[in-house]
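Bench notes, afternoon.
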Amino acid sequence: MLGSASLEMTVEANGKKRTVVFSGDLGPRGAPLHRDPTPFERADLVFMESTYGDRDHKPLHDTAIEAREVLRRAVEAKGKVLVPTFAIGRTQLLLYLLASAFKRKTLPTFPVFIDSPMGIEATKVYQKHTELFDEEALAMQKSGELRANLETAQFCPKAEDSRALNDVEGPCLIMAGAGMCNGGRILHHFRHNLSRSNTTVLIVGYQSHGSLGRMLVDGKRVVSIYGEKIPVRAFVHTFGGLSGHAGQTDLLHWFDTLAPSRPRVILTHGEDRGRKPLGRLIRERYGIKVEYPGLGEIITA
């Protein structure tokens, strides 16, 4: 996310200084729009995330090609493309990728609606802080190409704006919250469009077990929305390369510069399926012991 940060603290106790690093949520290296994580030089204690410590994501380049093919078919079908998306980070990334595709003419231009009040406000923050973009995105912004290639993008801040999209004919793309389809305006669009065979649903983020999004991913043919049974005739497609979290390789790359100082490593923010494989790799590659604290456990330096 724009403005996200890792934290380095120098703590002095009993006349001894120690450096503590908290990774925060690390983003993938080479992702468009955002800069890569800044490495640290040394630490005595590292608290490191491990969300995807067991695997790497599909390359973004392959995901972008796949997305273009799916969107091209949706445009030819003159249907609506519904994207349940997280308001901060994912919405802006998708807008940037669409602008790039429109610029290169790898996709025909079509209307894009941001139907999320929080997503709209977050996008405005991005617009105000372009100094935090990576070099390619900054160049597009300075040249005016970013705005020019998103001329068809429209904000829908009010409820009546969202309802008015019922009368908009395709092809068009609607981004609406919530990202896991557990509430928000995306349910309104699902209710009106899931039963249409020319509708496309793009899943661009993790869908938790039991969520409506997971039911769609798993191929359920009838879902319940606001107590109403809705048949699913829409084409549902999942993209696996748009995660905001670093995969295993990028996590290890971030740790590379800290490893020579041989810090104590605490793996957090990940289920055991993610942090245990990452911990084994850290131990095997660097010879550093790794700890896996439980909920509520106190770490004493």
